[in-house]
Every structure is written in C-alpha cells, then in structure tokens.
Amino acid sequence: MANPTDHIKQIILEKSNIDFSVYDTSFLQKMIEDQIKKSRVKNTEEYAILIQNNEDEVKGLISKLSNSYSSFFRNPYTFSVLEYVSLPTLLIELKGKMINELRIWSTACAAGQEVYSLAILLEELKQTSKIDFKYRIFASDRSESQIELAKNGIYNEDCLGNVSLKRLKKWFIPEKNLYSIDKSLQENIVFSVFDLLNTKINFPPESIFGEFNLIICSNLLFYYENAGQQIIFDKIKKSLAPNACFITGETERAVVSRNGFQEKFQQSAIFKLKHKQD
Length: 278
Description:
Blueprint: H1 4-16, H2 25-39, H3 44-53, H4 55-65, H5 76-96, E1 101-106, H6 113-128, E2 134-141, H7 144-152, E3 154-156, H8 165-171, E4 172-175, E5 178-181, E6 189-193, E7 212-216, H9 226-239, E8 240-247, H10 253-257, E9 261-263, E10 270-273
Parallel strand pairs: 1-2, 1-7, 2-6, 7-8
Antiparallel strand pairs: 3-5, 4-5, 8-10, 9-10
C-alpha cells in the first residue's frame, strides 16, 4: 500500500499541478497534521480521501504551505547594511556604467512588508544621495491572495515592530487599529503572481528581462528539499546582473554559501554570486 503522504502529494499534483515532493518532508508532514486536526478526520488515510473529494480542502492545504508571515525590516542588521553600504555601493557602480535605474526582485513578497521596507530605504536614499537614480521593484509571490494584500498595503501593528517612529509617521497612515502605507511608495513597484518552482521561465514576465541588481529570497529556501532549492537557485543565478546582491534569511546562510554564493558582509545574509563578479 502506498504511503498516505505520498498519496496526498499525488492527489495535489493531479488536481493543481503543484509538485509537493519539493517540500521538506518534516515541514510538509507538519502542515498535513495541522490540516488533519482542523478538518477533524482521524488520520492521514482519511485526509487523503477528504482532499480527493473536496476542492476547498485542496486549496486550504496549498494555502497552508504558502509561507506568508513577514514583517517590516524583518532582519534589522541586513536592512542596516543595505541602507548604509550595499545600496549606496550599487548606485556608485551603476553610475560608473552609465546606468541610472536600480532593478530589484522580491521573489516571495508575501503581503508586501519586505517590498515596502525596500521602497522606504530607496525613497530616503533618493533624498540624501548625490547620485540621481531611478528604481523599480518587481514583487512576486505564488499566492494571488498575498499579492492582493500587498497591493492594498494595510497592516496591523504586529508587523511594525522594527519600524522607527520617524518612519511610522512619514510612511504610514493610521486607520483605527491598522496602518496603511503611503501610496507614493507604490509608484515604482510592480506586483505579479509568479511561481519560483516554474521551470519554464526564470523571472516575472512583467520585468521583461532579468539582470536584477538585487534579488531577495528570504526565509523560503528551508521549506524545500534539495531539488526544490536547486530550482530556485538556478533561477536566481540566471537572473542576477554582474556584481549584484542576493539577500536571504539569517537561517539560510549556510545553504546559500554551499550553492555558489559568498557572503559580502559577515552575518549580513547579503551575498554575491562568485562567478558573476568582475
């Protein structure tokens, strides 16, 4: 008899064309166990029968597996290095190449916290830098519902803990118990639905071409088995411009280092691709 978890993977593949085999086994099993409790079936075998006959449950499991937690300036040290070192350096390098637009890709933007954090840094940098520049952030996520939340740009206090009072007053509009981002931050952001595990295309079509100066794939890689990670790494490597920065999460630094990247600043989770350096 087939393993019940493998049976669930096969059902999901047939019904949604999403290959769950790329997910880390322990992570996948935990998500399935959570859904079993929620749906009140007895075990994995019964849950497999449930999703075979219930489209809503299929959608629920897929949604559960889409990691959507984020916060503004989630890794303060990474964003500090970005603000004071990496972004100014990138601008100097682009100016030397007679390029005045900084291209950024947020590969799993969730509800937009990461993207708007970047936009805040860049808008503030435009006010202080002696270099005249433009920027465009391509923000993608596999989840259409997360992209809609990102476009709306409305957040509760829970994800604002790392936002300074000065920035909170300047870039956020209080609305009862929520905060809405200043709509001016959206002017240089392009949101789109894009699956990082799609092997047919390397970057969001909206970006026209790759050559990103900065790519962020943070707190996502550890959810996947090696095969899934390799698909993502291959896509990122093909999309980076020379001397570009690749940013990951703190807990993913080791796996990134093993896959052809070198950390630019110790403990920063900001990397460079070794063979693309000048």
